[in-house]
Amino acid sequence: MSITTRLILLLTFSVSLVMAGASYFMLRQRAVELESAALDEVRAHAATLRIALEEDYATGRALDAQRLINRMSENSKVHGVFLFDRDGQVTISSSKLMPDGASHISEARRAIATGSNVEIVRQIGGEEVFSIITPIRLGQDQLGALEIAQPISFVRADIAHARRDTLVTALLLCLTIFLVVLIVTHYSLSQPVRELLQGALAVGRGDLSYRVAVPRRSREFIILAQEFNRMADSLKEQQQAAEREADERLNLERRLRHSERLAAVGRLAAGVAHEMGAPLQVIDGRARQLLNHPDAPVEMRQRNLTIIRTQAERIARIVRQLLNLARPYNLQLSDVDLRHLLAETLELLETSAANADIQLSLEPADELIIRADAGLLHQVFMNICLNAVQTITARRRTGGKVRVELVPEAGHRDGSDLVAVRVTDNGGGIAAEHFAPLFDPFFTTREPGQGTGLGLPVSRRIIEEHGGWIEAENNDEGGATFTVFLPKESTPQMRSAVKSA
Q: What's the predicted TM-score (pTM) here?
């Protein structure tokens, strides 16, 4: 229900309630007035008839009493007239109408004895009437009583007529008030509110060009409409400013992405040039020696050709690693025991670690089977553990330690339970500025010729193909920790990699 309808109903109900109360009290007052007027009229008839009858009896015209009583009874509001003697017996009645019962005798005698009027309500001829019994002098010494009866139905009819008139007047007033309130609220309240509501809905839908019509009356709604339009103008300006700013930001982001792509391509090209430049120079130098010394000993020619082949294989290995970064892997999924795989990986590194005085350790763990590609996972853990050993060796630290820990319950993600492998070393850690490019191709902190910088990018790609990820962080006590998260079961990403193969 709208606020206008509620307001109209509330005002109409309130006014109707007040008018109903006022009409009730007016009707009660009108009923009292009509009853009092009827009594006064009966008293007046009684007094007039008493004077006339007393005069007739005083002048000896007693026979005119019947005629006067009959003439009085001709009044439509007089039901009957009765004349009583001293004993309270009816001597004359109008139109031969006799009162019912004998209850009138005591009232007539009381009026004669007291000399004052007696007013009673009783039945005469089957109709309820209001009677006034007044004492009267019938001659010199003879007393009697005169009764005039008026039907109560006349008074009730007058009251019903007054009630009907009051009710009709009240209904007409309520209808008039309802129509006035309806018209006033429609033009002064409902229409401006509806206009403001449509404006709010339009602005809520994003139509900031909508403007509400300013009413010609009602100062408050004029101010409200003007402020609404001013707010819409302000929002429109802010929207345009936001769109311009968004366009500028979008263009800036595009230029930034373009610059980042160019930078990435530049780093990749520089890395490729750096990694392939050295073996190409070696190949070029050895080829020149073969060309410049065609008569060189066989042993020298064999040595140069071996070096050329070795450097060519190095270039081919770099190209294969780059291709591995760009193309999807052919995952050969099988049940893999992670504990056994990690133990084999550390076993292959024992000799180089022992020569560098580095202790390798695998935390005790139970057998843990996951669905994965054993060969690719072996490459990942070999790269991470080898990086840890080489980092400690590069720092020339003694008493180095590389600890590998298997976490069977590492959380839950995308409907699959996760396991984790932590590789922790006590080397020098990772510099803050090296975290961002840590997994970029050809990024390395080692000396030239000591690494291609493709181990970590390739490892991350392999783990992502398995539906996991790699995290790197520094330890509080020194060194760094690489954590590899893997799902226990095959994920949609892994199944997609298998199908695409």
A: 0.44
